[in-house]
Specification:
- With 570 residues, the protein is α+β, with helices and mostly antiparallel strands.
- It has 3 domains: 34 residues, no CATH class; 217 residues, no CATH class; 216 residues, Serum Albumin, Chain A, Domain 1 (Orthogonal Bundle).
- Helix content is 35%, strand content 16%.
- Strands 8-5-4-12-11-3-20 form a 7-stranded antiparallel sheet.
- A hairpin with a 2-residue loop joins β13 and β14.
- α4 runs parallel beside α6.
- The longest helix is centred in the middle third of the chain and has 21 residues.
- The protein is globular, with a radius of gyration of 23 Å.
- The structure holds glycine.
């Protein structure tokens, strides 16, 4: 096992002339990073990270590690890790150099209708799209993991999936973070007796350092390990999902499950400076919105500004507003709505849009696109990034939507079902769970995929891997990922500096510039206000998981300091 400590910056030269003690001190304050020669894994959970690294060490490739990690997160990160949800994967094959994307987003059940969350007077029925069986989209995660493994995996499926099954069976030690999450969610999760039995055994909140055992989930995972995706979409688990739906007035039928299929899609590709950015195409809005933001800011000379200077925040936020305005109107499931992808990323179109960006001025959102609409998504999602020694890269973001999804578990199998139906616009012009509104492109239709912001991303430089990254954070995923790319490639920050940098977010509607709490000086805030921004502080958000690969193919990574995740390699 070789572990290389390298210094990407010029720290050694800079420190060379100073006294040894101050040399060591300044180097630790500088960007000394751990680089790994072979493989690296960054996830939101230390247990999942270690298991991913173990798979790579055993000779598995990044795709094998991703399958193991995907199922393990369903056990150890239950608020977002899942088998009852869905997501997206961006992949790069080290041998063919091809970048691919896999869409395993949930779909609306066949019986879903545009007005399904409205009463006879067209009022939205409270909680129907967010809690319980009617909120659930047909899950895609198991089919997604299976498709990934079938196409790219090298290890035995049973071996990969049964790791999670064993962990669910024997239990794992709850940390402080999970204890507080269980505590916080108790009232919501206790709405369903079957859910409360799992998360609050003997009516108790599981405390830090105690074991969390999930025997029913283990049963489901063993079945998936032994029988593959069929157990979930056609077999015993499918029958239990349908029985749960019948008991709880849900819409998902056996036919819905049998006909669910993940989709291999062309990734969304844009050029930014000399870099190739690959991210998720619709039904995620992530790739297009990130692409628009980066292309809109590209001509500005950032060497004149510091990271998070008022001028940079101003340029980036105006670009975000323009891109989010387009998102609201033009983005939805491409099988149901003609998404004008090329037009939205067209140079002439963006040149015209860029004319609205003026340093020192915040455009009013209404002036950008009057009467537009917007939908956003919840914060509770999770991302993992993996790179192996063959140059294979995996960037996966998947979710249950809200924390613990619909709060409903499948009878007998104890796994949580998503509440992804709320990512549709449930009624034009009416706020959804997260306070925002949606439009025609994203209206509910049978078998349609709801619009997402998930943005698993891969960045190449000279056709070689440079960055693998992604984050949770609902609509903020987009600005978190785009800001990380700019921080690293334009401001030349290392991963630690980039992830510690305060985050800001503007999504056009509401016309508010959100600033991460305690990270922006009064001077910057005053300047932004003088430009015309309405500012609001918000608590730390997102949980970015990043890998950086240098030209010699050594890899370093960073799990967001705001989260409990870890990065490890060998
Ligand atoms: N449910 C979060 C998203 O898909 O963006």
């Amino acid at each position: 096992m070789l572990r290389y400590i390298k210094n990407r910056s010029v720290a050694l030269l800079a420190c060379g002339t100073v006294f040894l003690f101050s040399f060591l001190l300044s180097c630790s304050a500088l960007k000394v990073e751990t680089y790994y020669e072979y493989g690296i894994v960054a996830t939101a959970s230390p247990l999942a990270t270690d298991i991913g690294v173990e798979i790579l060490k055993q000779g598995g490739n990044a795709f094998d590690a991703a399958v193991a990690v995907g199922f393990v997160l369903a056990v150890v990160h239950p608020e977002a890790g899942n088998i009852g949800g869905g997501g997206f994967a961006l992949l790069r094959d080290g041998e063919t150099k091809e970048v691919m994307s896999l869409d395993f987003r949930e779909t609306a059940p066949n019986a879903a209708t545009e007005r399904m969350y409205l009463d006879n007077d067209s009022n939205v029925i409270a909680d129907l799209s967010t809690v319980g069986a009617k909120a659930v989209g047909v899950p895609g995660t198991v089919a997604g993991m299976y498709a990934l493994w079938e196409k790219k995996g090298s290890m035995d499926w049973f071996e990969l999936v049964s790791i999670a099954a064993k962990l669910a069976d024997s239990g794992f030690v709850v940390d402080a973070y999970l204890e507080s999450s269980f505590r916080e969610q108790r009232a919501k999760l206790s709405q369903f007796e079957t859910t409360a039995e799992i998360f609050y055994p003997n009516n108790q909140t599981i405390k830090e350092s105690n074991l969390f055992v999930q025997n029913k989930l283990a049963k489901a995972l063993y079945l998936i390990a032994a029988e593959g995706e069929d157990s979930f979409y056609d077999g015993e688990i499918a029958d239990s999902i349908v029985a749960t739906m019948v008991a709880q007035n849900g819409l998902i039928t056996k036919e819905d499950l049998q006909s669910y299929a993940p989709v291999w899609r062309e990734p969304l590709h844009v050029k930014f400076d000399s870099l190739d950015i690959y991210s998720m195409a619709p039904p995620s809005s992530g790739g297009i919105v990130i692409g628009q933001i980066l292309k809109l800011i590209e001509p500005f000379d950032f060497s004149r500004y510091n990271p998070n200077s008022a001028e940079y925040i101003n340029i980036f936020s105006e670009a975000s507003k323009l891109a989010f305005a387009d998102r609201s109107k033009h983005l939805g499931d491409p099988s149901f709505y003609n998404v004008p992808v090329e037009r939205l990323l067209d140079d002439n179109y963006l040149d015209n849009r860029r004319e609205l960006i003026e340093i020192g001025k915040a455009n009013e959102s209404d002036a950008i696109l009057p009467g537009g609409m917007l939908q956003t998504e919840s914060d509770q999602t999770t991302h993992f990034s993996i790179a192996d020694k063959e140059g294979n890269l995996v960037s996966i973001t998947y979710t249950l939507n809200a924390p613990y999804g619909s709060k409903l578990v499948v009878n007998g199998f104890g796994f949580l079902l998503n509440n992804e139906m709320d990512d549709f616009s449930i009624k034009a012009g009416v706020q959804n769970l997260y306070g925002l509104i949606g439009g025609e492109a994203n209206k509910i239709e049978s078998n349609k995929r709801m619009l997402s912001s998930m943005s698993p991303t891969i960045v190449l430089k000279d056709n070689e891997p440079l960055l693998v990254l992604g984050s949770p954070g609902g609509s903020k995923i987009i600005t978190v990922v785009a800001q990380a790319i700019v921080s690293i490639t334009r401001f030349h920050l290392n991963l630690k500096e980039a992830s510690e940098l305060g985050r800001f977010h503007h999504q056009w509607v509401p016309d508010v510039l959100y600033l991460e709490k305690d990270r922006f000086s009064q001077e910057i805030q005053n300047k932004l206000q003088s430009y015309g921004y309405q500012l609001k502080e918000r608590e730390a958000y997102s949980d970015i998981q990043m890998i950086y690969i240098n030209p010699s193919h050594f890899k370093t990574g960073m799990s967001d300091p705001r989260g409990r995740g870890t990065t490890a390699g060998y």
